[in-house]
## 1
Amino acid sequence: MKLKSACGLILCFLAALTGCAGPIEETVTGGTPAALRTFQPINPDAAVFWDRQTTETRQLLLQLADEFNRLHPDLPIKVEHSGGYTEINRKVAASIQAGALPSMAVAYESMTAEYVQAGAVAALDEFTRDPQRGLSAADLADFFPAVLETNRYSEFEGKMYSFPFCKSALMMYFNKRVLADAGFSQPPNTWDEFLEQCRQVKEKTGKFACALNVDCSTVDGMIYSMGGELVKDHATLFDSLEAMRVFELIETLVREKLAYQITRDSYDDESALAQDQIAFLFRSSSGRTSIARLMQGDMQRWGMTRIPQADPADPRTVLYGPNIVIFNTTPDQQRAAWEFVKFFTSPEIGVRWALGTGYIPIRRSAAQHPDVQAFWNEWEYNRAAFDCLAFARSEPNFAGWQEVRELVHDAETAILTGMKNARAAATELKQAADQVLSARHARSTR
Amino acid sequence: MDEVLERTRSRAVRDGAIAAVLLAPSLAVLGVFGITPILGAVYLSLFDTHFGAGPFVGVGNYAKALTEEDFWKSFLVTFYYSVGTIPVGLVLSFAVALALFRILRARGLFRTMYFLPYVTSAVAAATVWRVLLHPQIGLTNLVLQWLGADPMQWLLEPRGVLYFLTDGRIPPTIGPSLSLCCVMLFDIWHASGFMIVIFLAGLTALPRQLEEAARIDGAGGAQVVWNVTLPLLSPTIFFLTVVSAIRSFQAFNSFFALTGDGRGPLNTTRNLTVYIYSSFYQFGYEGYGAALAALSSLAIVTMTIVQWRFAGRRVFYE
């Protein structure tokens, strides 16, 4: 083929692509889940559960699955470690496309909303209300409202599409030794105190005060703690006064060399805290176990507390932790999955899980259990995450938020690297996020 | 005469049948694992699927890609990567191959050493590089600080390398980011073993008498390399250029392993392959991802045809 002909063909093809294309018709979902689809189970002989737990918590989960399987021999549960939450989300996306899914998986609310829109997730209301296999009113009342409510999706008629699994809260970890060197005996209560302590740490020790993990949930928690909101009527509030204060705080921390950014997906901040290189870090309360290990059991050297607040009398933080979703596979698989969910969230198992992992008990009866109370008394900060449950709030649980998370990530990176100032980053973030949400909203109501 | 023709024809039929039988397994494998997925991807690209469901949109996904800023940004990253890795990789590999070809002592040892990066898993090697380029504990920053320079953010740095080289006179958004340059450097190092081996094979096959004749005529070492060795090596150089160009459009492992998600700081390392991956898996836009993959394949085919037509003419075949 002559070159001219080849180029001509390619140009014709490109012209055809751009010229003949009509507007993309959006998926018909009508604000409700797409028509429910049934998926092949990836393992017909076991109810597979895609999870992310590692180390000791994984061992405990496997042990609990074994105990469950002994009690329910019909269809065994098989826990499969499938990477982190992001990897599990990618696997589920590919599996939905392939038409085969596990029985259940861990998922954050924004991920679940995507699965619901694809018609891949079973509504759990019929399971919870089932007279034989459901949960009694007393059982449901035993769950803390905050952990249950986040699993109801207002976008999808308020139905429950996921069930609480592991719950934690955004916390501030602090190194007492570094703080003492800077002349402080207590961690900060407010963001103003926080900034002042950071400056003193830098001045008196020469160290960075804080290591920042670029993370949307952390930014969201900080906005909450400033008294702000994230969304209103499907429009984001990233240009609000409270959000702006957060971005300006991050900008100040970097400009004054009080904080540095850690490598993505690393836990360098935890190592730095354990090595007395920084005074503060912000992480989920579930990080308590790994930090304790890094501190080699020296519990007097560090502590964890709620994140600083704009108004300590009206505290707020973000509620972390995944839920379980049950996919639309076969009735047998769904039944086994639901039985496991019930088993796992029972008060007895809840106590063992909380003690073994540091996650917050999600039921009142588990929280009141003597063993949990004793655990909280063991170390003055053991109860800190649980105390946040009263005011911790989840992030938005509607479709499109996953994409917004990446935009928040980019805005924070732009500020940390000096590519944009706080005001420009916040304004552009608001525009981009609103564009994403309105496109997704249009898609779901078309 | 008819009998001869008939015999020839029947032999041709028999040979054809045998060839078909012998080719069948390969064709079956190619059909199932090569052609079918390609056709499947093209078919998928005609639907606006999101998490597995969506309506037929014809070439709507292609039009969307070609008019979307993100696509062209990814294309630019891919272009930077190709331009940054192929010429540098070729020159360095040729220089090393020439040195290895001429040294007499411990030749095998050196050849093994230079080939080692290529046989090392890209992910394992990238993990080591991540530590070397770590902003707080990495060796590179320790050396910089020892030399009295400020530490760099390396893989976390979205600002352009030209910004740093010109001391801020060029805006930070111009040119490849420092993060992308780190990925390029890694890939040059990682792929050089393959290029060196191919260059060595090419050098070994060259007729010595031409170089000797040039030397007798008074040509210096550099002149011999420039006027004799390089023209004779042109088929090897052409082969490596074509292969490297194709691979540069397919690069993924190093991007993903070095930056954690492939996108890098502010998407400055998001090449076409990473863009396809994130569209498809991270955000669940399968139809759009498939269209991007088809466009990427089209770009590779176009580039290869252009290379064959323009550079192919300058290749000297003995």
Note: Chain B has two domains: 1-34, 47-314.
## 2
Amino acid sequence: MHIPDGFLAANTWVPAWVISVGGLGYCIKRASEALKDKMVPLMGVMAAFIFAAQMLNFPVAAGTSGHLLGGVLAAVLLGPYAGAVVIAVVLAVQCLVFQDGGLTALGANILNMSFIGTMGGYIIYSLIRKAIGDNKGILMGAAIAAWVSVVLASSACAIELAVSGTSPLKIALPAMVLVHMLIGIGEAIISVLILSFVLKTRPDLIYNKEV
Amino acid sequence: MHKKEILLWLAAALILAFFVSPFAASSPDGLEKVADDKGFLEKGETEPVVSSPVPDYAWPGIKNEGMATGLAGIFGTLVVFGLAYGIGAMTKR
């Protein structure tokens, strides 16, 4: 759901840019408090992996495709702040190098996918993880949060389209949510597959707030 | 993470980007589909604000589409790896 140039009016993309610049500054500050040595290369690896995975569109309903967003996946391994920074790096490179998402809309795309998708998703994940516990809690939390993160990000996108006067909310919101409820299933499956593998091979890479 | 492990994960990402991406579904994504259905797709078909060096994940000047996509994938994977690693290293004090 990378918004291109032209979809958003200045009344929307300017404030979204301000929020995303300020938010990223805050994320970097918070990440620097929590970042451990082993997480620095993991930031690079996660960015590489999520970028590659975002190129792999899978078919959903008729004539539609979706791809991994990766926000919850990044946050489960890196925590919400470094995770949000990684997603923002991926979005910025996609926009500047590959014309995937417009430059004016980059702030909104970061707001939707880095902040709402990644940090919002992390909050849901950690609540479920705490309630269930163990590896089952990690996987269940990640699955549900992954699905919700895609639906939430698409809702935010629909709200931005409506505020911009591009498409009325009562049309854009149900349409965006419906298709992303399907794409979110793919998000949940891919996230769980990768995290199951990490839990088997390097469980220490899962982010723990307390430690 | 050990160096070997980092290289293994990076290699896995590069393999996905190079060998699998040419086979990815080409139908519009969720937002494009909604834009098309609801009649506002043409709003996004204006000239982009900045022109990108590798538009639409196809390395310019390469005729073979799969190769053009694969090379774009490798390039992008390495760029985001370097950037995110670098930002991580600078962030960690």
Note: Chain A has one domain: 10-205.
